[in-house]
Amino acid sequence: MEATPGQPGRIARHQEGYVTDRFSRAVDQLGSDKLDVRVGGLHALWRVAEQSARDREAVISIQAAYLRTHLPWPPNGPEAPAADTPTNDIAPLEARAADSQVALTGLGVLCQHREQFWVNLSATDLRRADCDGLWLPEVNLDRSCMEAAGLYRANLTQASLVSVNLRHADLKTAILRRSRCALADVRGARLVETDLRDADFTEADLREANLRKADGRGAIFRGADLRLADLRGADLSTADLRQARLTGARSSGQTRWPSDFDHTAAGVVVTDDPGPEPPPLLQPPGMTAHHPPLSSLP
Questions:
Q1: pLDDT tens-digit map of 168-199
Q2: Are 221 and 239 in contact (CB under 8 A)?
Q3: Could you please report the per-residue DSSP string of 13-61?
Q4: pTM listed for this prediction
Q5: CB distance 178 to 157 below 8 Å
Q6: Distances (CA, A) of 206 to 75, 100, 112
Q7: Which residues contact 199 (CB under 8 A, 6 or more apart)?
Q8: Which of 120, 59, 124 is nearest to 93 (CA)?
Q9: Residue 118 to residues 83, 121, 136, 138, 235: CA-CA distances in angstroms?
Q10: Separation between Cα atoms, residue 137 and residue 112, nearest integer Å
């Protein structure tokens, strides 16, 4: 059957109107006082963005605004854990704010194909958030709290992480290439086999961080605190270590240093190489790892 004149245009307008209606209804759901309705709205927006490239940027902006509004840092809502709550007493984001975890996951998936540059997630409360495998390149996370967040294999290329709290975060095999991490608190974080090439850790606090086998070529650690960090097998051959504090940091014969850098004079302790890294332990949803207290805490 041949299409009648004007039929393709009518079909396109009908489909466009259908998508617009779904978009509007989904946005309306985000204002509900019922959690399941908000979660449904966020999933609906996610589907709209996957099916309509024209609406993808708007959905990403809505997801980012939703997170900034519902998870401000410092926290100010009665249901949010206080800023000084111990890490081990904080529930995973999925358990304490399921809607926000859905918004974060959707954003981290849709950002693989976005056109806009900086996405604003600054000053958000992402403690114990599940960001494993998410794409967050060129995302502004300045001054956010991501304590004990899961960022395994996350893509944070050129992300801005200035003054972010990443204590005890799991960044194993994540990509932080060319990211800005100046003044960040990375104490006790796990950066095993992480891509840190050309990242800027100026004056960051990396005490007790695990950087085993990390690729730190071209990274800037100027004035950074790396005391008690595990640097065994890390490649720091072209890193900037001027004014970095390294007393008690561990290295091995596999650690690569700049040719003009005397690591023993800097107080680095040479120990045995740990060998192959064990496979990641996959935990059931809602489980939390127990983090021992940091000796570098006040």
A1: 999 999 999 999 999 999 999 999 999 999 99
A2: yes
A3: HHHHHHHHHHHHHHHHHTT-SSHHHHHHHHHHHHHHHHH-HHHHHHHHH
A4: 0.91
A5: yes
A6: 25, 28, 29
A7: 176, 177, 178, 179, 180, 181, 216, 219, 220
A8: 124
A9: 27, 9, 10, 5, 29
A10: 8
